[in-house]
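Structural prep section.
Before we set up the soaks we want a predicted structure of the protein with zinc ion in place, mainly to decide which crystallisation condition to try first. Input record follows.
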Amino acid sequence: MTSTSAAAAARATVHGYPRQGPNRELKKAIEGYWKGRVDADALRATAAELRRARWQQLAEAGVHEVPTGDFSYYDHVLDTSVMVGAIPARHREAMAADRSPSSRLLPHSQLRSSGGTPMRRGCPLDGYFAMARGTQDVAPLEMTKWFDTNYHYLVPELGPDTVFAADSAQQVAELTEALGLGLAARPVLVGPVTYLLLAKPAPGVAAGFDPLTLLDRLLPVYAEVLGDLRAAGADWVQLDEPALVQDRSPAVLNAAARAYRDLGALPDRPRLLVASYFDRLGEALPVLAKTPVEGLALDFTGAAAGNLEDLAAVGGLPGKRLVAGVVDGRNVWINPLEKSLATLGTLLGLAGRVDVSSSCSLLHVPLDAAVERDIDPQIARWLAFARQKTAEIVTLARGLAQGTGAIAAELAANRADLASRAGSALTHDPAVRARAAAVTDADGRRSQPYAERAAAQRAHLGLPLLPTTTIGSFPQTAELRTARADLRAGRIGTAGYEERIAAEIREVLAFQEKAGIDVLVHGEPERNDMVQYFAERLTGYLATQHGWVQSYGTRYVRPPVLAGDISRPEPMTVRWTTYAQSLTDRPVKGMLTGPVTMLAWSFVRDDQPLGETARQVALALRDEVNDLETAGSSVIQVDEPALRETLPLRTAARAEYLAWATEAFRLTTAGVRPDTQIHTHMCYAEFGDILQAIDDLDADVISLEAARSRMQAAAELATVGYPREVGPGVYDIHSPRVPGVDEATALLRKGLDAIPAERLWVNPDCGLKTRGWPEVRAALENLVAAAREVRESLPGAAS
Ligand SMILES: Nc1nc2c(c(=O)[nH]1)N[C@@H](CNc1ccc(C(=O)N[C@@H](CCC(=O)N[C@@H](CCC(=O)N[C@@H](CCC(=O)O)C(=O)O)C(=O)O)C(=O)O)cc1)CN2
Ligand code: MET
Ligand SMILES: [Zn+2]
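Run finished without errors. Recording the tokens verbatim:
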């Protein structure tokens, strides 16, 4: 095919689309189902209607080929486990037992609801949700971050005994629905190599087990699914292999080569499009290019832009289809259309056919910027959410196929919008820039070394050995959320809302004092979210009203937008912290979200290096830290749960990231007196990669998620000689289970194997916002009892 015909054939598509619906209808239907308020048929009907509406929207926008199979009731990786029959044994047994009258398989929310909810039986949805959320008797699959995004997937559990079996029902049904609407549709599956690379050894299987050894067993299952999809009318099927953008061993690259050679050799199959995104494909590019697959989808945005030169270096993809991800699926800025057209033009010479798409699924961006009413219309023109991105993709495909003349109006408007952003005062605040430029090394260093600070803090705080504390949030009750919704809707005034918050703080403080906790928190009742709350109070940040993005299951966040230079017009947390401190003689921890997490869980500026944005945020937070100290806080926690997840996917980029990330944290925290204790908190396991960085934060105390891994994080820190205080979590707050005193005691003793008593804290894994009060009360009382028991048993303990 010549370039010209490649251009003429250019089509628009997307890799995937938000699932929740314009008003999070899916969340509401699923949570209603869990509560017994919505029946299975109604839930299925809502889901089908949402799928229909999104396909229709894509088609009406001019998308030529819509994705199918990207919908999910909970998580598409879990759906893949169902598709290949990788149901953990404990769930298989529970589902079988569920048919017997003695079964206790039912969702937690039903267990906890005050009786009267009928148990559902024999419904496949329940088995599915049990894998996602667990039941009273059966633990769920583990949840972890999808690459470096804020989306969480359920980790497949595999072992040498895993028997795969194809179940293509959901994929076939969705394809059939879309084809029934008269649309060209392309099923999207998690590819077999990525699926295995994301898996972990099932419980009871040796940790050294490598799931990739199951490839030969898995490929026939994919072959069967592909056959079923072909029979159902699939012309193309997309297999997502984002795991191949990470540094991979020759063994993994060989596995990829084998997988696509074998799938490519199937006699009656759809054409195959292998997709990668989030970074450049690197050494996997020539490997995949040599396989018989008919197409590759590559990311050409951000760090992945290097795919362009890599593609040229391998001589392009002659005769193959290239789906060019030129519209960023991870960020919310309008596309520079002319730049993208130039990229697409170059790509025309490098492939048999070029189509236009998003860089990755649009799952990671909100649905529609046009429904935001509170964003300045001038600034709203700079934003593209899923709906606007779809329009950009269609425009680019038209421009590619018909020439720029066909999209002259769009290009002119785009030029004006880009110029308005570039020239805006919002993005260039001279005071912020001057302050950031004047930062010195000394600003990021505490005035005394850790050992001296520790002594000063010990004298100042007078805490017992094994001090108890919590991570910040207490239950975000329906009453609190409703009060906030009422305030927004004008049903209550500010005074009424604030009285509600004050009352909650009094209750949280009273409970902690009674329970005997040593370092208290105010409970964060005033915060809708630990990132959005601060974004709403910082100049240069935009918050959205409806910009929901799925974080996991039915939980969503509204990532704010780092749009301009960041400054803090006034203190953000001092008032509620001071109020809480006025209610007690014990120390109340000030509670802030750190600069790295503020970036990681927001949409970031793409017009300056991330490190510069981080420094601006850090300086604003530094003022808050210092103000808290001035107002009387002796303990201040700066949460950095996202420090690990934002680690670049390719190791070559990691050192630079860790340098600016740790610098931003130190800049936030280093302005306090030596006797002010700085805490930090991280709650995503796999700290092994960033132990040095944790040390470089120079925080006085770190609390970590450790309950499920039985103190592994504490042990890892100990192996590198971590010198500071550590609170490895002894309460897994992701589960409604209440840990018993013995269980917490055992974990603490295990913690003592790694960290000496003088440096060990007692706390939960993370905040308690998603938990209910009854569990929280019982669990924290047990945690305090365990701390006392272990304290008393320590050698030399005063009896
Ligand atoms: N940004 C961010 N990323 C994160 C985390 C995090 O805490 N924040 N934690 C990890 C993921 N964990 C998460 C844990 C919980 C929720 C969560 O509970 N989300 C809530 C929404 C939280 C929120 O924004 N609440 C607002 C708005 C609540 C709301 O839905 N209001 C209703 C009306 C009120 C009502 O009737 O409930 C509406 O606007 O329609 C508030 O409290 O004000 C949900 O999906 O339900 C999300 C992620 C990793 N990434
Ligand atoms: C995801 S980390 C959460 C930390 C926050 N301080 C909380 O307790 O909710
Ligand atoms: Zn946490």
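Observations: Residues 16-88+141-323+334-353 form a domain with the TIM Barrel fold (CATH 3.20.20.210).
Flagged for discussion at group meeting.
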